[in-house]
Specification:
By secondary structure, the protein is α/β, with parallel strands linked by helices. The protein has one domain: 3-Layer(aba) Sandwich (Rossmann fold). The chain has ten helices and nine strands. Strands 1, 2, 3, 4, 5, 6, 7, 8 and 9 form a nine-stranded mixed β-sheet that branches. The longest helix is centred in the middle third of the chain and has 15 residues. It is globular and about 50 Å long.
Length: about 280
């Protein structure tokens, strides 16, 4: 009976809208879609959710749909973004030595357009245009942190939550698959580009608040990525919370079964953090 009541409540309080094509002026636009998951009420906080996948693909279930559902349960509207990636053929065949394919800054442009679209339609979505944050996982964590560092002030998210993120493109703890996907095969050895996309090197003074989480036993993205980012944020006095769990690995998203009981606590910590952020008048 309790489970049925929970499901009924979710059906009544959450509106899953039709997918949105945020672009209309480039040939591959149909692959960039955003799915709103809207909560009841008005003037809601919203989060653009960017699933991970090494900038080659997306984990739309655990790091997309499950995240949106969990945010909705806590009164937060979510927008799951399928941003441009290099895609599987580029992973299998290095054709981007010859053809451009998808690469930086395509994902960043998609996130910027998504934030702009949400703000422009804030009345329709019943969200506060000044409270549009971004949450990303793994490579998606690199993406949302890119927005915090590189976007103009009016385009920056209200906050960012990089979860077990890719951070560096230069240090020995780099996630090479994400670097290759983002830079493109023909540019992967470009030292200037590597440096420019190493997030630990470019934290700005106007960086929005950051909620950062990872696990020390992460076997996919070296935990030192987050350590580098935490150190950089601390050095610039950016309001942030860094939680490092001993266990949990990588890719657990908002799952109730992946990771460990310890790492799954991040969801409680985030809700507490965002409530404090709102209470403090940001």
């Amino acid at each position: 009976m309790r489970a049925r009541l929970i499901i009924l409540y979710m059906l009544l309080s959450v509106q899953i809208c039709a997918q949105i094509n945020i672009w209309s002026d480039y040939p591959d636009s149909k692959k960039v879609i955003m799915t709103p998951y809207l909560t009841d009420g008005d003037n809601n906080t919203a989060v653009v959710v960017c699933p991970g996948g090494s900038y080659f693909w997306h984990d739309m279930k655990t790091e997309g749909e499950a995240v949106a559902s969990w945010l909705n349960e806590n009164g937060i509207s979510a927008f799951v973004l399928r941003y441009r990636t290099a895609y599987v053929p580029a992973f299998l065949f290095r054709f981007r030595y010859v053809f451009r394919g998808n690469r930086y800054p395509d994902p960043q442009d998609d996130l910027k357009q998504a934030i702009k679209y949400i703000k422009d339609h804030s009345e329709e979505f019943r969200i506060n245009p000044n409270h549009v944050g971004a949450m990303g996982f793994s490579a998606g964590g690199h993406l949302v942190m890119s927005a915090a560092e590189f976007f103009e002030e009016e385009d920056k998210p209200f906050f960012v939550a990089p979860i077990y993120p890719v951070v560096t493109m230069t240090e020995d703890c780099v996630h090479k698959r994400s670097r290759r996907a983002l830079l493109g095969d023909s540019r992967v050895r470009n030292k200037v580009l590597r440096d420019s996309l190493s997030l630990e090197k470019h934290v700005p003074a106007d960086c929005p608040p950051v909620f950062l989480v990872n696990c020390k036993d992460d076997s996919i993205v070296d935990y030192r990525n987050s350590v580098l980012l935490d150190k950089a944020l601390t050095g610039k006095n950016i309001p942030h919370l860094y939680i490092q769990y001993e266990t949990g690995g990588h890719g657990f998203g908002a799952s109730e079964s992946k990771g460990t009981p310890e790492s799954r606590e991040w969801k409680i910590e985030f809700i507490n953090w965002i409530n404090r952020l709102l209470d403090n008048g940001y």
